[in-house]
Amino acid sequence: MFRQVLSQQWVSLRVAVLVFVVISFAVPLLTVVYGGGLADTDLPRVAMWLDGSERIGVLLPGIALMLGVFFGLGVWQPDQVGKHVYALALPVSRWRYSLLRFTAGALLLAAPVAALGVGSFVATWAVDLPSGVHAYPAQLTFRFALASLVCFAMMFALASATRRVALWLFGALGGMLLADLLLAAFGSSFDVTPTVIMALVMFPGPLSILTGRWALFDV
Amino acid sequence: MTNAIETWDLRYRAGKSFELRDVALKVREGSIYGFLGPNGAGKTTTIKLLMGMLRADGGQIAVLGRKVPSDMPRVLAQVGYVPERPHLYPFLTVEQAINFHAAFFAGFDRPYADELLGGFNLPGEHRLSALSKGEMGKLHMLLVLAQRPRLLILDEPTDGLDPVVRRDVLSALLDFCSQGSTTVFISSHLVHELERICDWVGVLDRGRLLAELPMHAFKSGIKRIRVENPPSLIGDTPFVLVARETTTMDEIWVVRGWQAPMVQWFEGTGARVKEIVDLDLEEGFVELLRAARVPAA
Question: N vs C: which end of chain A shows fewer Cβ within 10 Å?
Answer without folding.
Answer: C
